[in-house]
Amino acid sequence: MNPIRGFKDGWYLRYSRVDRRPSALWSWPARFLPAAQRAEIMRRVRSLQLPVDPLESADPPSIEVLLVTTRKDFPTLVHAASSTIKHSRNPVSRIVLVTPEGDVEDARALMQELALPVETLVLSEDAVLNEQARTRLREHFGWRYGWVLQQFLCLAYTITSEAPGVLILDSDTVLSRDRLFFDGRRQILMPTLEHHAPYYVFLRNVNPLFGTETNSYVSHHMLWQPSILCELLQIVCDGDLGILAKYATQYADMETASPFCVDYELYAQGIMAVHPELVALAKWANSPAGREDLSTDLERHPGYSRFASVSFHSFL
After folding, report:
1. pTM over 0.90
2. Closest-CA residue to 261 (of 173, 181, 170)
3. Per-residue pLDDT reduced to its tens digit, 228-238
4. Average per-residue pLDDT for the chain
5. Cβ neighbours for 241, distance < 8 A, ≥ 6 positions apart
6. Could you tell me the sign of the dihedral formed by the alpha carbons of 203, 255, 144, 80, in that order?
7. What are the structural domains, with CATH classification, of the chain?
């Protein structure tokens, strides 16, 4: 039996619920495993023992919400966007959608029909990231281009935002529990199950800043402070996303389907290296679900009340 697989397949999801935390006794059997497996299991156990909502503020700052989306995710997008209004303890000042040029009008119609009680803005991806960077990424990454472009679009929009915080939210992920993401000084980060080695090899090749953090943070949603992101990008690529695109083509391991993560991992690993005092770690408490589970009455979904977020992945 592979101990890591066991932790991934059932045990981890069971203790990912907001109302469950593993006992410290679960760490005891790991002592008899090889060092690498022991460290991996201990990392997961520690992440499950974190508080779900560690921050408090009597007057939390408002935030923007950013969803980079395509037509295939429109069925989940409406639930994702609505969930931020209901479950973010930070007031949402605006919801921003970035989508391919051909989907802009339909996305606007969808948001108008949804009639959320906040400002909504729909932007073409062509207006967010310059053509030179998009061409470089398209020519190098081929069939991976959409996945790569999404990451750069998150970066490109956020560095222009005037909001104190921007909640990056995958358009297939629905928040299902109230949470404060940012108290005006500290923000939460949520350590996750995935620990994909090429992500960290890539980041270390880009800059030695990324070398000490052992957690992973591919959490499907994350609060970014634009001022912190600009500081990190200044360190990494002189604040120039064109240079970061060049690094992506230079250092990406093309033998793997997912060669890097310059959105969630770059931000999280960077802020933990430069400003760890501004971070409070929180339990991720996410449940995967298939699109067949999606319904208009999401609150009746079994994962809705047991987890802090539910991700309706199209590949499940």
Report:
1. yes
2. 170
3. 999 999 999 99
4. 90
5. 129, 133, 152, 155, 156, 159, 233
6. negative
7. 3-48 (no CATH), 63-313 (3.90.550)
